[in-house]
Design a protein that fits this description.
The protein is an alpha/beta fold. Helix content is 39%, strand content 20%. The strands form three sheets. A seven-stranded mixed β-sheet has the order 3-2-4-5-7-6-12, sandwiched between helices. Strands 9-11-10-13-14 form a five-stranded mixed β-sheet, with helices on both faces. Strands 1-8 form a two-stranded antiparallel sheet. Residues 12-177 form the Transketolase-like pyrimidine-binding domain. Belongs to the transketolase family.
Length: 330
């Protein structure tokens, strides 16, 4: 089977894709406003603030206040993009998000940078490994986790046209930029990147590229055909695309830069359990293995070294694939 190849077009920060898209939105939609908690340079919001000072609000290190102001601006039919680090955008302000944004279904876009282990040297106090779980449990909250610069740009544009609260998660370091520059981002629609008959790999965020690289190695060295699916939207989850794939492969590995409690893998396990229960064939079974952080806080270190240490890099994906295939029911 001929495998589709994705080329790394160069390393770029996903947060830079957000900043560029935000500036574009500022020029094309006068309802878009931006709020920041003293991190506008880190989130590439500088250009927006210079071009549209009347629509940029520097709140300072007062994230709870920022969420309340964003909720208020949405009442005035503005589209607020509130930006800070993922840890501060969730743990520090969960009450305000729940009460002022999610409960009343405000049209606020919570833009969370520096997520996961790849925040790197700032260490455990800043690395957010539980944010997806926290946000996906809020009724009505859409949760998006983008994989590269181009996809983050497209996602930022897409959520401006979507009414409702959104949690947009992206990262700090330069990573492979491999998706299409002209892509149309469809909220809630997973993307099958490569087709395969042996095993399904469902991944999100920075681990999408790691999954593609693992898939390439497995095919070239062992002839294993992996079906790699980019799940950029954690909620609502594209159940149909995932179930269609596992109907073919009968096994799955999920890969994410997040604690395995509350993340993508747990969401996939839920739909597999429901699907298994509804199948008439009592012998029908699916093996799933989760590539995720094993219920532990992070630490300081270089991003790629941390992925390796916490067993969520491409080599770990390969090991999980081989384990699943070894135990797959024939």
């Amino acid at each position: 089977m001929k495998k589709k190849r994705y080329k790394n077009k160069g390393l770029k920060e996903t947060r830079a894709g957000f900043g560029k898209a935000l500036t574009f939105l500022g020029r094309t939609n006068h309802k878009v406003v931006a709020l920041c908690a003293d991190l506008k340079t880190s989130l590439f919001m500088d250009k927006f603030s210079k071009e549209f000072p009347e629509r940029f609000f520097q709140i300072g290190i007062a994230e709870a206040n920022m969420m309340g102001i964003a909720a208020g601006l949405s009442i005035g039919e503005y589209i607020p993009f509130a930006g800070t680090f993922a840890n501060f955008a969730t743990s520090r302000v969960y009450d305000q998000i729940r009460q002022s944004i999610a409960y009343s279904y405000k049209n606020v876009k919570i833009c969370a940078s520096h997520s996961g282990l790849t925040l790197g040297e700032d260490g455990a106090t800043h690395q957010s490994l539980e944010d997806i779980g926290m946000m996906k449990m809020l009724p009505g909250m859409t949760v998006i986790n983008t994989c590269d610069y181009n996809q983050t740009y497209a996602a930022t544009i897409a959520i401006s046209n979507y009414f409702g609260p959104v949690y947009l998660r992206f990262g700090r370091p330069p990573v492979a930029n491999f998706t299409s520059e002209n892509q149309i981002f469809e909220i809630g629609k997973a993307i099958v990147l490569t087709e395969g008959k042996d095993i399904t790999i469902v991944s999100t965020g920075h681990l999408v590229w790691e999954s593609l690289e693992a898939s390439k190695i497995l095919y070239e060295k062992k002839g294993i055909e992996c079906e790699v699916i980019n799940v950029h939207t954690i909620k609502p989850l594209d159940e149909n695309t995932i179930l269609k794939s596992i109907d073919k492969t009968k096994c799955i590995v999920t890969a994410e830069e997040h604690n395995y409690w509350g993340g993508l893998g747990e969401s996939v396990a839920r739909i597999l359990t429901t699907y298994h229960h509804n199948k008439k064939n009592k012998e029908y079974s699916i093996i799933q293995s989760l590539v995720a952080v094993n219920d532990i806080f992070g630490e300081s270190g270089k991003p790629m070294e941390l992925l390796k240490k916490y067993d969520i890099d491409r080599n770990s994906i390969i090991n999980h694939v081989e384990f699943v295939l070894k135990n797959k029911k024939k």
